[in-house]
Design goal:
This protein has 308 residues and is mostly helical. The protein is built from 15 helices and no strands.
């Protein structure tokens, strides 16, 4: 039953992706295909210049000049990421609630993805980041798997540092041990070396908008931004309500989600918050759908295991 639900959600989300993104790419070929070609040619503006994972992987199969094949490869990558996202979310949310709560969280994620696709470029780096984050929430006790995901995330987007923060927060109970700091610093070092290496190797690139250009774009699109953020506002309110009754581990992740959202709001386009907010969603979903009795029981269990 659970596998069937996950397959159904993957199918529906792929359909939403096709419905929203394909027409957008047909109207804006430069944003969908030319930008990916510019990344491959090392002529893209920042920050896209340094987000090389998806374009390089896709270029092993085809090229942006073959638009139909390029879109098809992007769709396959998205479908694989959707499968990882829903499977990981199911495991993650079941730690904090019932099967029904996990189901509600997955459906909510599907709705948010459909909403995000209205402000979504073709390149899969946003969805790859979300898949890696969801996998980290499930596999955080397996350091070398987390290290692999940090490496992939660092080649994917500069926000790969979020995976390092997630690992540190989920292992915070071990903060008095030397191993905790060694492992966390190793992950941070991997992210820093890869990020710096990309900037050094590919060279400096002008930001596509810059600080003032981003501000002007936000002012110009303020009515649209107000509508989009107004739609998202109930989600943040529900997370804030759930925060008070949540265990410390979830509260820590809520802090990280808040810090990320503030940074996205300061440095990003307000009209694209549906897409930009995606990394915060798996961090706050347990605050919304978790059930208090199960939370309390699990919190006690975690506290007992951390003290032994």
């Amino acid at each position: 039953m659970k596998i069937g639900v996950i397959v159904f959600l993957v199918f529906i989300t792929c359909g939403n992706f096709l419905y929203s993104v394909l027409p957008s790419c047909n109207l804006n070929r430069e944003g969908c295909y030319a930008n990916d070609q510019a990344i491959l040619d090392h002529t893209a503006g920042a920050p896209y210049q340094y987000r090389v994972l998806a374009p390089y992987a896709m270029s092993l199969v085809t090229s942006p000049a073959n638009e139909g094949a390029w879109f098809s490869v992007a769709l396959v990558i998205h479908a694989a990421c959707f499968a990882v996202i829903y499977t990981s979310l199911n495991l993650w949310l079941r730690r904090w609630g019932s099967d029904g709560a996990a189901m509600a969280g997955m459906v909510l994620m599907a709705l948010l993805l459909a909403f995000a696709f209205h402000q979504y470029p073709l390149s899969p780096n946003s969805i790859i980041e979300l898949a890696l984050m969801c996998a980290t929430l499930v596999l955080w006790k397996r350091f070398w798997l987390v290290a692999l995901m940090v490496i992939l995330a660092s080649f994917n987007r500069e926000t790969g540092v979020l995976l390092v923060a997630i690992y540190a927060l989920l292992n915070a109970a071990d903060y008095r041990t030397r191993g905790f700091y060694m492992r966390t610093l190793t992950l941070a070092g991997l992210w820093a070396v890869i990020t710096a290496g990309l900037h050094i190797t590919l060279g400096a690139a002008p930001h596509i908008l810059g600080i003032m250009g981003t501000l002007q774009r936000n002012i110009d699109n303020l009515p649209q931004a107000l509508i989009i953020n107004g739609i998202l506002l109930p989600l943040w309110i529900l997370a804030a309500i759930g925060y008070r009754r949540s265990p410390v581990m979830l509260k820590r992740l809520g802090w990280l989600a808040a810090a990320y959202l503030i940074s996205a709001f300061v440095g990003g386009l307000w009209g694209e918050m549906g897409r930009l907010s995606l990394p915060a969603i798996p961090l706050i979903l347990p605050l919304i759908v978790a059930e208090k009795p199960i939370q309390d029981k699990l919190s006690v269990s975690l506290g007992h295991s951390n003290n032994t």
